[in-house]
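User: Predict the structure for this protein chain, please.
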Amino acid sequence: MSVVPDSQRIVITGVGLTAPNGNNLAEFRAALLEGRSGVVRYETRYMGEVLAGVCNFDPLRYQRRKELRRGTRSGSIAVYCANEAIQDAGLDWGRVPRDRVGVYLGITEHGNVETENEVYEISKFNYDTSVWSHHHNPRTVANNPAGEVTLNLKVTGPHLTIGAACAAGNAGFIQGVQMLRLGEVDLALAGGVSESIHTFGIFASFQSQGALAQHEDPAKACRPFDVDRNGIVVAEGGAVCVLERLPDALRRGARIYGEIVGYAMNSDAKDFVLPDARRQAECMRLAMKRAGVQPTDIDILSSHATATEQGDLEESQAIHEVFAEHTELAINNTKSFIGHAMGAAGALELLGNLPAFEDNIAHATINLDRLDPRCPLTQIVANRPRKLPRVRYILNNSFGMLGINSVLIVRKYDPREHVR
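Assistant: Here is the predicted structure, written as structure tokens:
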């Protein structure tokens, strides 16, 4: 374990999320342990019925109808998750200096939904652009989801969205950690969001690639590492955490979910869409080096696997290269339950595993009826949760198009370990 001063130790003290199978951490975790999928049939423009992970949170819980009409789906998801995280953290929000709060949210893409909607609307008027919405520009700027959070919560500190493809959820956390360590902020709202199911283009593009999942039973459509996998299930969702420096969290008696102890990001520099096992392995090793741990210290590895043939093969090879000798490792996958939530994926997948620090259970990868023999993962948790002797370290993989890789390592907080 690396020795880090308490002032540089960053902990998770609040969790807010919406997923296709739960609108808070307790609901989400229960669904993962019970094997309940959130994938359903979904109608999308021009394509008809597809399969998707659809969230069912209450957008009016923290916003008015006027704000919803003016804003975006991803902004609404972000506002919901940020408010939930603040409440969960037990913060007295009225006493928090808003200029010392930063908002850092990972996204895969933004603006597609609004542009598609506007083009569709003007098509009804012979493409007369005079009916184009004057709200389009603030809806489509890349910083929109984080910006909507600052408007809702009156945050006057910095806000950023981090465009990192499907590695974005981890990237949001990493940005929050770095800004806290630099002293730029005293509290970070960090994570990732996605509105992807509301753009027909993402479904059409995956279909053109031959990478859009199909199955007669929606709950069985997402099948990472399975011989019969046939592509991605697109999902929406969001996950935002309150991050604080350890002394600040202790000072106010906060509940600590876990401590972020290691992270890494790198690039494949290989292909637009095809991943590279070597670079993914390097990313995992770098994160562990920064955390001061060995492969045998990791208890749960949350895999990125999207149920595409090549993606699953490359990641499984990378995991095998790094962890082949660690036979007690538990490898699981959350996308099998909810589909691929794009910018929110990595954040949701980490949070679904966080309760394992308390119950010592690794949730399963469902729909894994026949492990692809080309995916050498003997440690995978298939179809039923696995009770572990202990859970001290969780490693979260999150990889994306154009070869962007991110890895986050979270440790169970031990109040006896203080450096000061």
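The mean pLDDT is 97.
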